[in-house]
Design goal:
single chain, mainly beta, Jelly Rolls, 5-stranded antiparallel beta sheet, 4-stranded mixed beta sheet, 15 strands, RmlC_Cupin_sf, Ureidoglycolate hydrolase, Ureidoglycolate_lyase_dom_sf
Length: 220
């Protein structure tokens, strides 16, 4: 890890990706895998909240989303579903929701650490150490809980297509972005070779994040 200098420049943070499973991802949302045709709706299906607007389901083409990020965002009004078309490997940085009810903020009378977003809701800025990176592969998709912080999708290919379920105005009216205050932090990937009986290559990707964040606003 690189250390900060007296001018408090960003520190390079490295993370090893976690394989996304229903158990490993449960604090951030759901991992939805295939199920038999005709199976009744249950807790393993995506538990959606699309009640605050018009749902938008579309194919999203992303290009040059390499394995680095310096911003993270959340949506306070909707769950979001993301999945790669073709089941190719991709990565997502996440942190648990930190939304705060406006009534709680009023009761605390400024004592809370919550800040108001430019969309009017309140949240507690997420600590850098609370960000995790997940690896998603195969025929599955991710459902993010309301307010889950996320960065990505990220991938090694030049471009990938993803299906995306959110609201029609999510990008414009519900996209609270937080970013670093110093020059762009890098997210680095390191690969190591695991020597076994089959001499298979094991991935060991590490991600970096900046140490200091600030709230994104129209004035920023």
């Amino acid at each position: 890890m690189e250390t900060t200098n007296p001018k408090s420049e960003p520190t390079i943070m490295k993370l090893k990706p976690i394989e996304a499973t229903p158990e490993s991802f449960k604090e951030f949302g759901q991992v939805i895998e295939s199920s038999p045709d005709g199976e009744k709706f249950g807790p393993n299906d995506a538990q959606l909240d699309l009640s605050k607007g018009i749902p938008r389901f579309y194919i999203m083409n992303l290009q040059s989303r390499t394995l680095k990020f310096s911003t993270i965002t959340h949506h306070a009004s909707v769950t979001q579903c993301l999945g790669s078309i073709g089941g190719n490997v991709w990565y997502l940085g996440v942190a648990k929701p930190s939304l705060v009810d406006s009534e709680e903020v009023k009761k605390d009378k400024g004592k809370t650490a919550a800040v108001e977003s430019r969309f009017g809701h309140f949240y507690v800025p997420q600590a850098i150490d609370d960000v995790h990176v997940f690896r998603i592969s195969g025929p599955k998709f991710i459902k993010l809980n309301v307010g889950t912080w996320h960065a990505g999708p990220l991938f090694k290919a030049d471009a990938m297509d993803f299906y995306n379920l959110e609201l029609s105005d999510t990008n414009e009216d519900d996209n609270t972005l937080v970013l670093k205050s110093a020059p762009q932090a890098r997210l680095r990937r390191e690969a190591s070779e695991a020597m076994g009986s089959a001499h298979q290559r094991a991935e060991a990707k590490r991600f970096t994040r900046c140490e200091r964040l600030r709230t994104h606003s129209p004035e920023a």
